[in-house]
Backbone:
């Protein structure tokens, strides 16, 4: 890949490079593209696909159904954003009793 092709890609992506930036970027970009070409040539036939390479397994918590707001409660909370502090306090007190 040459400088003109890199500049063309940058123009398409609407990235403006100064000449110094382009010169610096050109070297790194070419190195990265060469690395990608080397990786493409690696024979992976017969290798097991992996998502994780360090042995970590699914450590996410289980989904559990918990208490959630009713539509009316959720609407009241939205109302809080446009209400004075005393009204908010009264409404929150009412919701906490539910």
Residues:
């Amino acid at each position: 890949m040459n400088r003109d092709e890199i500049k063309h890609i940058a123009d398409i992506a609407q990235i403006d490079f100064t000449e110094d930036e382009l010169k610096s970027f050109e070297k790194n970009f070419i190195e990265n593209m060469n690395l990608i070409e080397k990786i493409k040539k690696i024979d992976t036939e017969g290798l097991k696909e992996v998502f994780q390479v360090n042995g970590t397994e699914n450590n996410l918590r289980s989904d559990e159904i918990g208490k959630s707001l009713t539509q009316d409660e959720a609407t009241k909370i939205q109302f809080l954003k446009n209400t004075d502090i005393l009204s908010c306090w009264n409404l929150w007190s009412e919701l906490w009793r539910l």
Summary: The chain has a mean pLDDT of 79. The helical segments are 3-12, 19-40, 71-80, 85-97.
